[in-house]
Design brief:
alpha+beta, three-stranded mixed beta sheet, single chain, 2 helices, Rhinovirus 14, subunit 4, 68 residues
């Protein structure tokens, strides 16, 4: 490897909008993110359905109740 052409790989703090903070290594430095593994629905198991303009109700009226 050539010397002096690679960015520094250093410790950085990542702050999420939910308030979670953790440390990692990267070349960018400290970061602020909107979603992390604590608040992401896939990883947390808490999925929230957002009903935009009644789309869920419209779907249920059209196709009836969904069988489980």
């Amino acid at each position: 490897m050539k010397q002096g052409i690679h960015p520094k790989y250093e410790l950085a703090t990542v702050n999420c909008a939910c308030g979670n903070t953790f440390q990692t290594h990267n070349t960018v430095g400290d970061m602020k993110v909107e979603i992390c593994n604590v608040c992401h629905p896939y990883f947390s198991g808490k999925q929230v359905l957002l009903d935009t303009a009644g789309r869920i109700d419209k779907f249920r009226k059209k196709y009836g109740p969904v069988a489980k």
